[in-house]
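User: What would this chain look like folded?
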Amino acid sequence: MNTSTDRRIAVIGLGAMGGAMAATLRRAGWAVTGFDPSEAARAASEEAGIATTANIEDLAGTPYAVLSLPAASVVEATVPRLLAAPGTVAIIDTTTSEPATSKLMASLAEAQGAAFVDAPVSGGRDGAATGTLSAFVGATGAALAAAEPVLLALTGGKYSHIGGPGSGNVVKLLNNVLAAANLVSVGEALGVAKAYGIDPAKAAASISEASGGSKVSANMYPNWVLSGTHDSGFSLGLMARDAALAVEVAAQIGENPALLAVVASQWQEALAVLGPRADFTEIARTVAPAITPAGAPNTTVPNSTAPNSTAVA
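Assistant: Here's the prediction, encoded as structure tokens.
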């Protein structure tokens, strides 16, 4: 498996996350070309100084590529097109994908002398924009070495090599379903506090300094729920998908995480009411509507169009 000093890199998927990662890579000295099927996404990246193409075949054989895609099926369709010409060194897939897909893509890349690593990320659009994401990496040692220059640019070294291909996907899904569970449980707890006449913000701040505290209670609820802004940049549709996929992946190996399955069901219920484009912090509107200024959702099922396809947690 080769390495290269060629700083050309393709970013496939220019949504909230991919677009921010492309800008970060450009500031870090990479020669970035982006692709997205959305003309609007390409235009936004061009305004940020990123070169784009409307034809993904133009990027075949680019030494490095970063994927920020909506689903494993899109990853499977994209990787062979990037490998269609010689020259690829490493493909870094930041998609919240599926372990079986990553194993297959890693084998496909290795057969052509290239590296494929599953490196789903956490840190949101702010982390993507500042190069401070954290990444859960699944890869062979050789593939990791090939991809490391890109991982360093995106994370500042804040990545964990979990194990072989697919393992990064597994741990990222577990991370997201745990966050999904915490968003529900913190909301319910603050709803109880509110019913007792206690300021939910004060309750959240106090809990955050104690054993029940978390990033959800310390940051997500104060910043996005109690404020009523609900503008994290990550969609409810994607979180509901990730929670369901975590339970599905567990079932594939004979595990039955009962509590996480209940959580995944709650997110599907919220999805049915709020729609996929709602911010994921709007789950609070279904589990504790009294604590958010937005209040309870109406019962009309919103437009079921899929969420922004290139956004990732």
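Residues 220 and 281 are 8 Å apart (CA to CA). If you want, I can go into more detail on any region.
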